[in-house]
Specification:
This protein is α+β, with helices and mostly antiparallel strands and 237 residues long. It has 7 helices and 11 strands.
Length: 237
């Protein structure tokens, strides 16, 4: 009798909670949709999709990579768009990117290559870095590049981030490019006058592009900004 209890007793004891657990599981209702319902649950209407991922238009200072299918010598990684929003590619030279999406830029490059050099080219453009929350500093500075934007950032402090102007920099020819309500603007500033307190130190905004010295500017924009009548005033162009 004792042997039978020792042999079968543990099984009888275990059977009770297992049965009770099975009964409890049968009454549970899953909170996460499965099967076809799962796809329905994550479906996003077109208008909601636009709100989540709005169209991003390229601008000066953005960093992109261009891949030309089966043409590695024409592909380029980490190209920084210049202050005017252009980039240079092999055979094509300067290509306008400002205001285009990466897909639109890819189609534009395809058309340019197809017109003269390639048959049925396929191009992909990838956005590596955006200047949405950064400022770009170009020209006659020790460390040109993109720098994180922070509240209170001014022209002087931004130039300091780039380790200050070089010895050959023209301190009275510092240009700030800015986009306001879709309009491109530019202002010429005298860095020496700002340092001496004779002119205010302008506050910067995310996306601003600073060019120290006209030597790094495209000729067209250099001519426009040289014609600006007053220093420190943003001019629309």
């Amino acid at each position: 009798m004792k042997k039978r209890l020792a042999r079968f007793g543990p099984r009888a004891v275990i059977a009770i909670p297992v049965g009770a657990l099975a009964a409890c599981q049968a009454t549970l209702q899953p909170d996460v949709p499965t099967g076809a319902d799962a796809y329905t649950a994550i479906a996003v209407a077109p208008e909601e999709s636009d709100a989540v991922a709005p169209r991003y238009a390229l601008r000066g200072g953005d960093v992109v990579s261009v891949a030309v299918f089966q043409e590695p010598e024409l592909s380029r990684d980490s190209i920084v768009l210049d202050a005017a929003g252009n980039l240079n590619l092999p055979l094509l030279g300067e290509i306008r990117a400002r205001g285009l999406t990466t897909s639109e830029l890819a189609r534009s490059i395809e058309s340019a290559y197809a017109a003269q050099y390639l048959r049925d080219p396929r191009v992909a453009v990838y956005l590596d870095a955006s200047i949405k929350d950064a400022v770009t500093i170009e020209g006659q500075v020790e460390l040109p590049g993109m720098y994180d934007y922070r509240d209170g950032l001014t022209l002087l402090s931004a130039v300091a981030l780039a380790r200050s102007p070089t010895r050959t920099a023209k301190l009275d020819e510092v240009v700030v490019f800015r986009e306001v309500d879709g309009q491109r603007q530019g202002g010429v500033f005298d860095l020496m006058a700002i340092r001496e307190g004779r002119m205010p130190d302008p506050a910067l905004r995310p996306g601003d592009v600073i060019v120290v010295g006209y030597s790094s500017l495209q000729g067209t924009y250099r001519d426009i900004l040289q014609a600006a009548p007053i220093l420190g005033i943003f001019t629309r162009f």
